[in-house]
Each structure stands twice: as structure tokens, then as C-alpha cells.
Design goal:
Helix content: 40-55%
Number of helices: 18
Distance between the termini: 130 Å
Oligomer: single chain
Structural class: alpha/beta
Number of strands: 13
Largest sheet: 7 strands, parallel
Radius of gyration: 29 Å
Strand content: 5-15%
């Protein structure tokens, strides 16, 4: 009898929990259009986390993934990879050259996605969504989904947010302390560098308001005729944002409660390697250097002088080399180098014989090497990679080497320093322990906050009221102006009185002299 009672109670409890799960189930639209696999991996981790929590997730992405979860629906927009071709990723792209390319890329992506038949059909379908998780990398016309579905809009970036997106949320921005993400602020900044960063900030604001937003307004009017919503309105329409970076990596800034930082979202426990790779790594006597420039920078397409310099250095090293190289053969390949078109990077970095990771400075690769405890040599190419390379040096987990400084001696020196000096290995392991010291996993944290924002209908109570205050009122310019006018009037009256008194005294003195 007791067993039957216990079984009945367990059944009732199960039904109760199931009802709660159904009651808290949301329909969520995830829009992540950037044609870059490194952007998609954190998105996929969150989307799968949301689906596992019982929510139905519709994903618009250029990278679909196999799944048996009935809660996941995917719309393929792989054509957005074609828009990445405006970037010459085999060469270094400085901060001043990024803006024109960004204008072309973001407008092309937004227009292309909005005119993709499955997306157009979805927007006109009348479906109901409770929340929208949007890649907030300035594909601004796509933010119209908030109006179309009347849903909570949650921004999500896989790198640091643009300064003006931070500002639209009410977060503190500063041209030197919190600059555009392609700059990194070291502990000590030279006077000349501060001047350059201030001018760059002015240029960024000019580009944003007078070049970028007008180009987006044209896309909005083209795809949503009759709307009065502007690109600037849409930029300020986020209810909540997730910046996909950990503050432990030095990304600390004052932020309002409806902006959170969550990094290392795509990190997963190591999986068994393919047998051929496992044997190769196990057999290495002196250890292995792993070399990959990520999913965007193709090693096979590097400029000949860069590629040849790297090959010459690798040939003279006593280590085995595992190189992600996108063609089946490499001219003049050294005998200690093994090339593969694709490699399971996280799993390789977990192997005990990996001595060093030579990479381009992408954020996801940076997170993987920290989690696995592998020091690095960074050769940055574009975007936030140079800033990440400087962060790596500041954190003490590796060395950076700019393309313009790349030579046989400089590269060999960096490799030798990082492998032979134990401080880099020790520091990266300590940093990994610090990163993992959290109450929940990164995905659990992100899922909880997304549910919170939807559950609380945009979390209006967390919004900073200062974002709606006009510029003149926010900086008290009107108050200062009134006081300056008041001071001027007081001084003017005092001057008049002084002149009157002075004039009266002068007349009295003249009369006395005559007498």
C-alpha cells in the first residue's frame, strides 16, 4: 500500500512539473545572419539550450545544424557568406578601413535576408513569438521583427558590442576607456594614442549618423514602405542585451542591469579525437604546435610572403606541427608539418601534447585556448583580432605579432618565448580556473536571462531612464546655460553700478578741487 501511495504521489508530482514546464514554454525567434561560423557557434549553443529547456526555437542562420529536437525549426540563409567577400581577410584591415566595408556588408545582409522567400513568408505568416534573440551587430532593418511580432527583443553579440549600442542601452561609453571594439585599452595609454582614439571616436560617430544610418533607412523604406520607424529608432529598441564576452578577460565597464556579459558559451567538454589524429598527437616526442587562423582567414589564401615566412620557421622547429590548411597539398611542406582541411579544435587543444596554439585572435579561439590551458602566439588580421591580441599580452597568456612585423626572427622568437617560458602556461591555467568559477554554466546563465526578459515582458523595470533624456538635459547644458546667463547678468549689473558709483565719485572730486 505504501509503495502504491508513493507511486501515486510521484506521478502527481511529475504531472505538476510537466504542467509548469508547458506553462513556461515560449516561442522564440533567433535571427543570426552573419556569414561567419565563429559567430554562429555561440548562437547554436544558446538555441539548443533554449530548446532543451522546452521552448520552441525558430532559427534564421547561414549555418544549420543536424538535430532531432522537434522544438527547433531552421531557416537557411547561407547566401550571407557571399557578402563576406567584401573583406580581404588575407591582409590586415585597420580600424579606419573597417567602416566602409561594414556599411556595405550590413546593408547587403539585411536586404538579402529580408528578401529571402522563407523569411518573407515567416514575416507575413502571422505567427506569434514571445521573444526575439537578435544578433545585434547592426543588421538594423532586421530589428523590425520586434514591431511585426510585438515581442521582447533581446540583443546578443558574439563579441563586444558597438559603442553606440552600449550607449542606446544606457551603458557608459568613453573614447579611450571603452573604445570601439577594434581598439584595446591597455593599463597605460600614451598621449598620442589617446589623441588618435578621440579622433577615431569622432569619426565613428560621424560615420554612424551620416553614412551608416541613412543607408539603413533606405533599406527599411524599401522593405517596409509606409513605416515611420527609422534606423535610429530600431537601434534603441532592445529590451535586453547579452554581450558574448566574459568580464574576466578585461572587458569591465559600468553597465545597467538589462545588459549582461556571458562568454565561453560554445565551450563543450572534450570529445574523443578521430583515431588518426589521436595517434599523431600521442606519438609526438617533443610536443605539437597547433596552427589555425579560424574559419574566416584561410591559411591556403595567405599572401605568399606571409605563408613562406611561416613555413620557414616551422621547418626549423623541433616540434610536430598540426596546421588547418584548406587545400589538400602545400607547396614546399616541411616534413614535421601535417595539414588538414578541417580539425576539431576544442578537442585537439585538450590533448596533453599540445604545446602552443598559433592563431589569428578570434574571440572563440581565444576562449577555447583559455579553457584548455594552452598559451598562444597571435597574428591578427582584421576586426577585433588586434584588440584581442593585445588583451592576450596584457593577460600574460601569450605573445602578439602584427603582420607588418612578421619575419623569420620575430616569429621564431615569439614561439620560443611562449613555449620555453613556463609563466605563460601557468597563467593561462589560472585564468581558466577563474573563468569557470561561476554558479551556472554560460549557456544556463544566458537561457535564464532570456527567459527572465520574456517572462517580464521586456523587463521594463531594468531599463535606464537616462536613455530617453535629450542630450542637452542629460549633460545639464540647459542648467549650465541658465547659470552662465545669470552670472553674466549679475556681473553686468555690478559693472553698471560700479561705473555709476565711480562716475559719481569722480564728479564729487572735481567739485571739491574747484572749491
Amino acid at each position: 500500500m505504501n509503495a502504491q501511495l508513493i507511486f501515486a504521489m510521484c506521478a502527481i508530482l511529475f504531472i505538476f512539473v510537466a504542467c509548469l514546464a508547458v506553462g513556461n514554454s515560449y516561442r522564440i525567434l533567433v535571427i543570426f545572419p552573419t556569414g561567419s561560423y565563429s559567430h554562429q557557434r555561440p548562437q547554436q549553443a544558446i538555441s539548443q539550450g533554449l530548446a532543451a529547456a522546452g521552448h520552441h526555437v525558430t532559427i534564421i542562420s547561414p549555418n544549420t545544424f543536424p538535430t532531432t529536437n522537434p522544438n527547433i525549426t531552421q531557416i537557411d540563409v547561407r547566401f550571407t557568406y557571399d557578402y563576406m567577400k567584401v573583406f580581404d581577410l588575407s591582409a590586415s584591415i585597420g580600424p579606419w578601413g573597417m567602416h566602409a566595408l561594414e556599411t556595405i556588408h550590413r546593408t547587403n545582409v539585411a536586404d538579402g535576408v529580408l528578401n529571402h522567400p522563407p523569411v518573407t513568408e515567416l514575416l507575413k505568416s502571422g505567427q506569434q513569438f514571445d521573444g526575439i534573440v537578435m544578433e545585434s551587430l547592426l543588421h538594423v532593418p532586421l530589428f523590425m521583427a520586434k514591431e511585426i511580432f510585438n515581442a521582447t527583443l533581446i540583443g546578443f553579440t558574439t563579441l563586444e558590442m558597438f559603442p553606440l549600442l552600449h550607449s542606446s542601452m544606457g551603458n557608459v561609453i568613453h573614447p579611450v576607456l571603452h573604445p570601439f571594439f577594434i581598439y584595446h585599452t591597455p593599463k597605460r595609454i600614451g598621449f598620442f594614442d589617446r589623441i588618435v582614439m578621440c579622433y577615431f571616436d569622432l569619426y565613428h560617430r560621424y560615420w554612424h549618423h551620416f553614412e551608416f544610418l541613412p543607408s539603413l533607412d533606405r533599406i527599411i523604406k524599401k522593405n517596409f514602405p509606409g513605416t515611420k520607424t527609422t534606423a535610429w529608432d530600431l537601434m534603441k529598441s532592445f529590451d535586453f542585451t547579452i554581450e558574448g564576452m566574459s568580464p574576466v578577460l578585461g572587458n569591465v565597464r559600468p553597465m545597467v542591469p538589462n545588459t549582461i556579459q556571458v562568454g565561453f558559451l560554445h565551450i563543450a567538454p572534450p570529445k574523443p579525437l578521430p583515431e588518426n589524429l589521436q595517434n599523431y598527437l600521442d606519438r609526438s616526442k617533443n610536443g605539437v604546435i597547433y596552427l589555425s587562423f579560424g574559419s574566416n582567414v584561410k591559411s591556403s589564401e595567405l599572401k605568399p610572403e606571409i605563408k613562406n615566412t611561416i613555413i620557414k620557421v616551422l621547418r626549423d622547429l623541433p616540434y610536430d606541427i598540426l596546421w588547418k590548411f584548406e587545400t589538400p597539398s602545400m607547396p614546399d611542406k616541411p616534413s614535421n608539418v601535417r595539414i588538414e582541411k578541417w580539425l576539431p579544435q576544442q578537442d585537439i587543444l585538450a590533448h596533453k601534447n599540445i604545446k602552443l596554439f598559433i592563431m589569428q585572435g578570434g574571440l572563440q579561439s581565444m576562449e577555447e585556448t583559455i579553457d584548455r590551458g594552452i598559451p598562444v602566439v597571435v597574428i591578427p588580421f582584421f576586426g577585433d583580432q588586434a584588440a584581442n591580441a593585445e588583451k592576450i599580452e596584457d593577460l600574460g597568456i601569450g605573445k602578439k605579432l602584427n603582420l607588418e612585423d612578421l619575419s623569420y626572427n620575430s616569429l621564431k622568437s615569439c614561439i620560443s618565448e611562449v613555449i620555453e617560458n613556463p609563466k605563460y602556461k601557468q597563467t593561462v591555467k589560472q585564468l581558466g580556473d577563474r573563468i569557470r568559477d561561476t554558479p551556472m554554466t554560460p549557456v544556463q546563465t544566458a537561457v535564464w536571462w532570456i527567459e527572465y526578459a520574456i517572462r517580464n515582458r521586456g523587463a521594463e523595470h531594468l531599463k535606464y531612464k537616462g536613455t530617453d533624456v535629450p542630450f542637452i538635459e542629460y549633460y545639464l547644458i540647459d542648467v549650465i546655460a541658465v547659470h552662465l546667463v545669470g552670472i553674466f547678468l549679475v556681473l553686468y549689473v555690478l559693472k553698471k553700478l560700479f561705473n555709476m558709483i565711480r562716475g559719481g565719485n569722480s564728479k564729487t572730486t572735481k567739485k571739491m578741487k574747484k572749491q
